[in-house]
Write a structure and sequence with these properties.
The protein is an alpha+beta fold. Helix content is 44%, strand content 16%. The chain has helices spanning 16-22, 37-48, 67-76, 82-85, 97-104, 115-138, 153-160, 200-221, 230-238, 244-251; strands at residues 2-7, 10-15, 59-63, 88-95, 142-146, 166-175. The strands form 2 sheets. The chain has a 4-stranded antiparallel sheet, with helices on both faces. Strands 1-2 form a two-stranded antiparallel sheet. Helix 2 packs across helix 6 (115-138). The longest helix has 24 residues, at 115-138. The N and C termini lie far apart (48 Å). The mean pLDDT is 93.
Length: 257
């Protein structure tokens, strides 16, 4: 189905998929209703249809249904309780192990995990996960990505039995929403869409405009308790990097060249 909209005197048509994308919100509270297995399988099938470099398909999804493992993952990810509570919790992994096993059937030399292939695997994983997110949201489910899965990547890898050349990129909670949070505003398009060359002035003005937008959003969301701009949030984030990821990735066989 499509929707008719009127903008600046023009009649425009777009499919409901656009509305699904524009209405995305991170959901952290879920109803207990399970996601039927055939539905989850279809969501993963949609993920598999994402674009992938040279058909390498360098990602693996682990559906964590064991509650003890869920509890441990919640703790390892910063005590995020919704990992335990959501109907489905998926861990999305960049996977060069399967690619290398396939190549070994026809290649006898030494294989080196290049930075390029690391990028390919990470991008493949993100593209597939976003396909799954859109598919889930189109069916009325909600999701939230869990970057905290990288807080303790070695412990997560051990818990999930990840072999060399596989690393956990992020988790994803999924289920029927039991909340209706505000849609978080995004940066003004002038800050991200440039014509022919990078426009630094547009970035700077876009940040100033967005700071006020986010300040108002935070005040409304917190009922007046938080008065924080986007740039303030970014400055705070700089002080909390996951510096351990470089050493961890090298220990898993990545970034050799």
């Amino acid at each position: 189905m499509s929707k008719t909209i009127y903008r600046k005197g023009l009649i425009m048509m777009w499919p409901e998929t656009i509305d699904v994308l524009l209405n995305h919100r991170s959901i952290r509270k879920f109803k207990s209703n399970p996601i039927p297995q055939p539905t989850l399988a279809k969501i993963i099938e949609a993920a598999q249809q994402a674009s992938t470099s040279s058909s390498m398909q360098c990602f693996t999804v682990i559906n964590v249904s064991n509650q003890d493992k869920r509890k441990q993952l919640a703790e390892l990810s910063g005590n995020q309780a919704y990992i335990e509570e959501c109907p489905v919790f998926l861990v999305w992994c960049a996977d060069l192990f399967r690619y290398e096993q396939a190549a070994k059937l026809h290649f006898e030399g030494d294989m080196t995990s290049t930075v390029e292939n690391f990028i390919v695997a990470t991008v493949d994983t993100a593209l597939a996960a976003q396909n799954a997110a859109i598919a889930a949201e189109s069916l009325g489910y909600g999701i939230v990505y869990i970057g905290g899965i990288r807080n303790n990547p070695q412990e997560v890898s051990t818990l999930l039995g990840l072999p060399s050349h596989v690393y956990p990129v992020f988790g994803m909670c999924m289920g029927e929403p039991d909340q209706a949070p505000l849609t978080r505003p995004r940066l003004p398009q002038q800050a991200i869409l440039h014509e022919d060359r990078y426009d630094q002035e547009a970035v700077e003005s876009g940040i100033r405009e967005y700071d006020e937008t986010i300040r108002q959003y935070m005040l409304e969301r917190s009922e007046g308790k938080l008065n924080t701009s986007w740039s303030e949030s970014m400055a705070a984030k700089i002080n909390h990097p996951r510096l351990h990821m470089g050493e961890f990735l090298r220990s898993k066989g990545f970034l050799q060249q």
